[in-house]
Design a protein that fits this description.
By secondary structure, this protein is α/β, with parallel strands linked by helices. Helix 2 runs parallel beside helix 12. The chain folds into two domains: 150 residues, HAD superfamily/HAD-like (Rossmann fold, 3-Layer(aba) Sandwich), CATH 3.40.50.1000; 111 residues, 2-Layer Sandwich (Hypothetical Protein, Haloacid Dehalogenase-like Hydrolase, Chain: A, domain 2), CATH 3.30.1240. The radius of gyration is 18 Å and the shape is globular. It is 35% helix and 23% strand. Strand 3 and strand 4 form a beta hairpin. GO terms for molecular function: hydrolase activity. Pfam families: Hydrolase_3. It comes from Anaerostipes amylophilus.
Length: 275
């Protein structure tokens, strides 16, 4: 096995329940980098909200952000490739979201913005209490988020619709698929519908990095936990799902590693990838 590139989802994969990088995972990543492996972040997060713990790992060069909408060279903060959403698709999403009691998040040039009322009280919009700190520390609050989105409609990386439950999620998801063109729809957690350009997706980002580094598909591996990681795991030569991953994510994986709170990334790197 000759793995030269590992793509890592962050939340509930590389990071523990406290949103931190454990010593075990840190040491495994450093060891892989010392052995010539490219470590690539692959996250739904925007570039400006990537955690310091991961960015501080010496040698991590690339980040697939906003579910593949933008790919960055980390040391220089240079965007290497991006897919901006089309104005028509953005307006379509707005019209559907307005028909339901939802909140919107929007990612623009690596920054995350969200409805102010949602940022102030995420739980009232269906978010778990555990996510409050993350949302309030990473989102720039906007009073009139729809007007803000329209003002920046030519510069949008991706959008999220925050839903109150599974029934509303499926209803809006189906409306988006039926009515909106040129979009890629996915979801990392139950309360989010995550939308980007049709050619985006973490898998698209990994494909770009692979070609950028002149690597073969079988020289790549990926770790993930959510439904938004399914295509990523399928794109990689070896896909590794966490013990805590969604059923569909596990179905897409080559291996199942330990829980994200038990250094599952480190275990996968040493036991499955033999690095």
């Amino acid at each position: 096995m000759n793995i030269k590139c590992i793509a890592l989802d962050l939340d509930r994969t590389t990071l523990n329940a406290s949103g931190r990088l454990s010593d075990g995972n840190y040491n495994a990543l450093c060891h892989a980098i010392e052995n010539g492996v490219h470590i690539v972040i692959a996250s739904g997060r925007s570039f400006d909200t990537l955690p310091k713990d991961v960015l501080a790992v010496p040698g991590i060069e690339y980040a697939i952000t906003s579910n593949g909408a933008a790919i960055y060279h980390i040391p220089t903060s240079t965007c290497l490739h991006e897919y901006k959403m089309t104005p028509a698709s953005v307006e379509c999403i707005i019209q559907i979201a307005k028909q339901h009691e939802t909140a919107l998040e929007v990612f623009i040039d690596g920054k995350a913005y969200a409805l102010k009322a949602y940022v102030e009280d995420p739980v009232s919009y269906g978010t778990t209490p555990q996510a409050i700190s993350y949302i309030q520390s990473t989102r720039i609050p906007i009073d009139d988020i729809i007007s803000f989105i329209r003002e920046h409609i030519d510069h949008i990386d991706s959008m999220d619709i925050v839903v109150s439950g599974e029934q509303q999620k499926q209803l809006i998801w189906n409306e988006l698929k039926y009515n909106c063109d040129e979009i890629y729809i996915t979801s990392s957690v139950s309360q989010l519908i995550e939308i980007s350009h049709k050619d985006a997706g973490k898998h698209s980002g990994l494909r770009f990095i692979r070609e950028y580094l002149n690597l073969k598909p079988e020289e790549t591996a990926a770790f993930g936990d959510g439904d938004n990681d399914i295509d990523l795991l399928k794109e990689a030569g070896i896909g590794i799902a966490m013990e805590n991953a969604s059923p569909k994510c596990k179905d897409a994986a080559t291996f199942i590693t330990k829980h994200h709170d038990k250094d599952g990334v480190a275990y996968g790197i040493t036991e499955f990838l033999k690095i």
